[in-house]
Sequence to fold (348 residues):
Amino acid sequence: MKNDNDPLQQAGIYRYGTDELKAFEQRLIKYFSREYRQHSSDDQPEVPLGQGPLALAAEDLADNHYDEGINFFLNFLDRQTMSYTMAYYGDTPEAALSSDKTLEQAQTDKFSLIARRMQLSGDEKLLNFGCGFGYFESFLLETYPEIEIAGLTHSKDQYDFIKRRMQDQDDPLSSGRFQVFFGEIDDDCIELLGRERYDVVSSMGLVEQINNIEMFYRIIHQLLVPSGRMFHHLIVSRDLIPRFLEPDSTLIGEYFPGGKVLPFYALKDDIAGFRLEDAWFLNGMNYWRTLEKWHANFWENISHIYPEKMDSARVEYWNNYFVLCKAMFFPENGTAYGNGQYLYYKQS
Ligand SMILES: C[S@@+](CC[C@H](N)C(=O)[O-])C[C@H]1O[C@@H](n2cnc3c(N)ncnc32)[C@H](O)[C@@H]1O
Fold:
């Protein structure tokens, strides 16, 4: 449908809910489905996990993605959890699609699920790598009155946002049981964060941006107490899609410089001083539904974003991002791509 009063549409940018955008999403779903079927296999080829630098383009990633500006993220994430990873609606695709949970409730349910699967006892020291806006931390501080938490992010915007939250006496982050660190994950962060200081190290939506997983796990090994454990939640494919291991050959790499999608099985093993305790695959319709809501929110709030904060090229960039990610999770009823969760115990 043509709308001559809409400058974005005149620039060829279609809004959420338009037939044109739905048709674009359908074309991408077909593309991902076809590619997925080509690579679907019972074989599990080995995936290199210990090569090269820890992250391929960490600075670009922070500049191009996470530091787009707090206002941008406020306009599509839910305000209660500001969680920038999959919300948990249910275990099956049907449950994920038919659930009557709000986005806020589904994000809080993800926090509870992860706390349970991490086997938190409530009086431990936890380090969360890639802490985003710090709401998983608030949830844990409120749920467990004796827990102590440290978070690390390499986004200056997120760090400043968290620092501001820590000044507010009504915010759980001001409890004195929380610390935030700004920086990249590397060998130097071990002394900064504290050698053998943590009972648990966790991450959500971070490992996709780590290139050398063995190096990452070796760093965590040094941060954990001898009986410590680690938990990771990340986007995975079911089977290996080779181009998703090469950030420069996917559009995902354009949005998340250095980003990869590993097959679920790749981390389901003992590795670099850790014993795998358990692993779970979460159906991709959970992420589809989360992205659908983020995409709708983005367009509902577009007047706060365009033209003041973002030009039309940038609106197109982010609009395509939501469509692309949704289309990736949709094929095969959410079983082709989803999220993997992994719990490991440190081996001395
Ligand atoms: C997708 S966001 C997820 C944020 C949060 N865990 C959540 O669930 O909302 C990924 C987080 O990882 C951080 N991150 C990515 N690569 C990093 C690196 N190399 N060093 C430190 N932090 C990194 C980002 O700054 C961001 O906070």
About this structure: The chain is about 40% helix and 15% strand. Strands lie at 125-129, 148-153, 178-182, 198-204, 224-237, 262-263, 274-282, 337-346.
